[in-house]
Design goal:
Blueprint lengths: L2 E4 L9 E4 L5 H24 L5 H30 L5 H40 L42 H25 L2 H31 L8 H33 L9 H26 L1
Antiparallel strand pairs: 1-2
Helix pairs in contact: 1-2, 3-6, 3-7, 4-5, 4-7, 5-6, 6-7
Length: about 300
């Protein structure tokens, strides 16, 4: 059974901390994550070899469902324990450090993709254009132009290039306005929570979710436009690859952040959180601000420059 214990260190004298009972959730998470990743790898391998991907998709679906079950159950346990008053200031610090390191891991995740973009633009493309090779400009094919975005191909018939790239001042600008505004609305909601204004909290949190969903819709439309009208796909050379990897993973993080905000709104509706204790809400808002900052970098380095 879960129990309370008392620190012996003088800094935490008489301050209790919570020791949870044994949990099934870590092993369930391991199984679910393993099946999900194995399914993704199998889909990629079978697709490249022209084989059926039905079984691979089934593995991926089963793994995803197990992960959803795990997240619902595990976080449900944490919420119940928190509501029962079992967590001490020490546990609160533990949660804060855990969320901080999680966001840091996400920062490094995107740093790898931004690094790939930087390397391609600053080093690889100029080298292929002949920079540092005594002026040779035909390292790939006759007439190769080392320009960015790199969408020209050696044989436009065999390898149809993208007609053009997506300009920054249309849909990307709309999405930038949506995300920057959502960062403002979630901050207003946070201040309302700390001030005890529940009605204001619900309104501005719902507004944040609406803006987030608007971003997802606009990005989905942008992808359809890129594929159907501009022939800009994942196969459009290094530009297409970096474009869709960066914007696609960011879009996935927006969806995850939106789900977190929706859960926070449901909890607010149920009367959870107080002006003093609301780290669950804070964690979701931290993550959302992180998503906003990544988008501003994407808007600058992918769309504008």
């Amino acid at each position: 059974m879960a129990t309370d214990h008392t620190y012996t260190h003088e800094k935490y004298a008489y301050q209790k901390y919570y020791v949870p009972e044994q949990s099934k959730w870590p092993i369930i998470a391991t199984v679910g994550l393993g099946l999900t990743l194995f399914g993704v790898a199998s889909i990629m391998v079978n697709s490249s070899q022209g084989e059926s991907t039905g079984g691979s998709w089934l593995l991926f679906l089963v793994g995803s469902l197990i992960m959803a079950y795990m997240l619902f159950g595990w976080f449900g346990n944490v919420i119940r324990e928190s509501r029962a008053g079992l967590y001490s200031p020490q546990m609160d610090r533990s949660f804060r450090w855990g969320m901080s390191w999680f966001i840091f891991s996400e920062v490094m995740f995107f740093a790898a993709f931004f690094g790939a973009l930087f390397y391609a633009r600053v080093f690889a493309v100029p080298w292929l254009g002949g920079e540092g090779d005594r002026g040779s400009s035909n390292l790939l094919w006759e007439g190769f132009q080392a320009t960015w975005p790199l969408i020209n191909t050696p044989d436009p018939v065999a390898y149809p290039p993208a007609k053009e790239v997506i300009g920054p001042w249309g849909l990307p600008l709309v999405n930038t306005i949506l995300l920057v505004t959502s960062s403002l609305t979630v901050t207003i909601a946070h201040h309302a929570l700390k001030a005890g204004h529940r009605g204001k909290l619900k309104f501005w949190l719902a507004a944040t979710i609406a803006l987030a969903l608007g971003f997802v819709v606009v990005q989905a439309y942008e992808y359809v436009h890129a594929y159907k009208d501009l022939n800009l796909t994942l196969e459009s050379g290094i530009y297409g690859t970096t474009f869709f990897m960066l914007t696609g993973f960011h879009g996935a993080h927006v969806i995850l952040g939106t789900l977190m905000l929706i859960i926070m709104l449901v909890r607010v509706m149920k009367g959870h959180f107080t002006a003093e204790q609301h780290f669950g809400f804070e964690a979701a808002s931290w993550y959302w601000h992180f998503v906003d900052v990544v988008w501003l970098m994407l808007f600058t380095f992918v769309y504008i420059l």
